Amino acid sequence: MTPTLACPFCYNVIRRRSELWFLCRGRAIGDQPACRPLVDETRRNLTGFAEPSMPAFPPAADSSLLLRARAHCPRCGGETRARACPSCHTRLPLEFGRSPSPLVAVLGARGTGKTVYLTVLSEELQRRELGRELRATVQPIGAGQDGFSSQAHQVRQNIRRVYDEHQLFPTTAQAVDGRKEPMVLEWRGELADRFRRHRTRTHYLSFYDTAGEDLADDNETLGLHYLQAANYLVLLLDPFQLPEVQQLLRLPQAAVQQNEPTRDVLTRITESLKHSAHWNGREITVPVAVAFTKMDAFYDHLGETHLLRRAQRRRGGYDDSHGRTIHQQVGALLDRWGGGDINDYLRSYYRDYQYFFVSALGAEPDYDHATVNPTGVRPHRVEEPLLWLLDKGGMVPRVGV
């Protein structure tokens, strides 16, 4: 599956790279007055970004089918190579669109740990060990300006909060009129083609962290534009919401932030997807990684010999055999814990889904004080849902075949 080219900030489709706009750099020619940063109302309406930015302009009318490397600003005459989204006018990296850049929607009800999961995933992807294994360099988009630097700063701030300060997050803020800033990562990786030649490609992964409240009723879910634009979905489910798990584990009251049936959340997400191109009239076609979080709470219950604890994926890419094993084990646990209706529902409505069992923190936090365990952050399998999805887009190799 090759993702459709879309803006990683506003999620509007871009039919071809030649349609990308340009962004003035304020370098006027001659006596022309230089352009100044101003608040772009189009960008604010589509993304919520309200800081001043340089003006964007479309390519020349005679170049709609040709990719121009540079253009001259119609206001100040200055030359620029900077590109921008034709819909929201947000600056885009120069390499954007040369390789697939999938949009990943991260969904889950309140209390599933979406922001913690995304923060830990971002840090683990940037660490040398995983990068060396996957022959990739990953970093937050943003050494520049026009909103890039603030986005990268937010990612680093979140990582510092969890890893260094050992603090968890408050409830994710709801999207305002569908607007909320995503986390965009640059993935520059080496992959062998069918002739075994290694080529380096740059992808941009856009992750949208949904507030649990955005899924609280049908109207909100239907209004989430990014959900319909996403190439892949990561659905985080909280096993603490299963009544039999609450009886099995001695959970503090702060650990169970809501008691809404997971089936109800699934139903609303499905109804929203039915209003998109992901619905073919019979089933949902977008790949969905269904990840149960907080695996660390079950370590003692499962025991050290359980496959969910001892099974290890082969390194170097996505291990399909390992993935199928985890999928089967999680499905069996769901049946045992009273979640059989989740199995039935996903089989009925979703063409392509797979179960995962992850722990972003690696040890149970102090739920009452919202702090990380004193042993620190020790994530377990947080990368596996993403590797499964990237394998579908041909962005990582498959191992053990």
**Major β-sheet annotation:** 7 strands, mixed
- Rough shape? globular
**What is the CA-based Rg, rounded?**
22 Å
Specify the number of helices.
13
Describe what this molecule looks like in 3D.
This protein has helices at 41-47, 114-126, 128-134, 148-164, 218-222, 225-229, 243-248, 262-273, 299-302, 307-310, 320-336, 340-349, 384-392, and strands spanning 21-23, 56-57, 71-72, 79-80, 83-84, 91-92, 103-107, 136-140, 183-192, 198-209, 232-237, 288-292, 318-319, 353-357, 398-399. It is α/β, with parallel strands linked by helices and 401 residues long. It has a seven-stranded mixed β-sheet with strand order 8-9-10-7-11-12-14. The protein has a four-stranded antiparallel β-sheet with strand order 2-1-5-6, with no helix packed on it. A hairpin with a 5-residue loop joins strand 9 (183-192) and strand 10 (198-209). Helix 8 (262-273) packs parallel to helix 12 and helix 11 packs across helix 12 (340-349). The longest helix is centred in the middle third of the chain and has 17 residues, at 148-164. It is globular and about 75 Å long.
Summarize the structure.
Helix content is 29%, strand content 16%.
Attribute tags:
alpha/beta, seven-stranded mixed beta sheet, 15 strands, 401 residues
Break the fold down into its secondary structure elements and pairings.
Blueprint: E1 21-23, H1 41-47, E2 56-57, E3 71-72, E4 79-80, E5 83-84, E6 91-92, E7 103-107, H2 114-126, H3 128-134, E8 136-140, H4 148-164, E9 183-192, E10 198-209, H5 218-222, H6 225-229, E11 232-237, H7 243-248, H8 262-273, E12 288-292, H9 299-302, H10 307-310, E13 318-319, H11 320-336, H12 340-349, E14 353-357, H13 384-392, E15 398-399
Helix pairs in contact: 2-4, 8-12, 11-12
